[in-house]
Amino acid sequence: MLKWLWLSAAMVLLDQLTKGLANTLLQPYQPVPLFPFFNLTLMYNEGAAFSFLGEAGGWQRWFFTALAIGISVAIVFWLRRLVPAQRVEAAGLSLVLGGAVGNVIDRLLHGHVIDFLDFYYNAGSCLPLFVKVGGECHWPAFNIADSAITMGVILLLFDSLRRYGSDKAP
């Protein structure tokens, strides 16, 4: 099932292309409104998801890089063991792999991950995980790699639940 690595490569290419454009065309932390709920806003994340450990002093760069590389190697071995009928699982793993590699490239080249997709809504109070900026509640900025990882995990969960449901069927 290594034939699914094309999907990983496509995600890495799309991720790096969009991050390069964002880094070239946008000014850091200066939103460019596109819709009443969406900005392009160049941000640099030195941590992990939701800037976890972003202020840890630098060691986290190498920790998250090593972790992502280890997970990526494990995913390649996992993909090798799949059979052709496990297409959804292969697609999910390939998306996670592409996203992980895309963010590792950022950490190695820049020392941080480039984020630029900024979704928000106007409200008096924010839901958990949203950050209040002025009168707007912003979801933490993210990128194509993060989206690929999220979609990959959703596919893996869907496939797992689908198989669990079919095991219980009479």
Give the N-terminus to C-terminus distance in angstroms: 30 Å
Summarize model confidence as the mean pLDDT. 89
The largest sheet, given as strand count, sense and whether it forms a barrel, is: 5 strands, antiparallel
DSSP strand count: 5
Q: Supply the number of helical segments.
A: 4
Account of the protein in words:
This protein is α+β, with helices and mostly antiparallel strands. It contains four helices and five strands, in the order αββααβββα. It has helices at residues 5-25, 59-81, 87-110, 144-168, and strands at 32-35, 38-45, 113-122, 131-133, 136-138. Strands 1-2-3-5-4 form a five-stranded antiparallel β-sheet. α1 runs parallel beside α3 (87-110) and α3 packs antiparallel against α4. The mean pLDDT is 89.
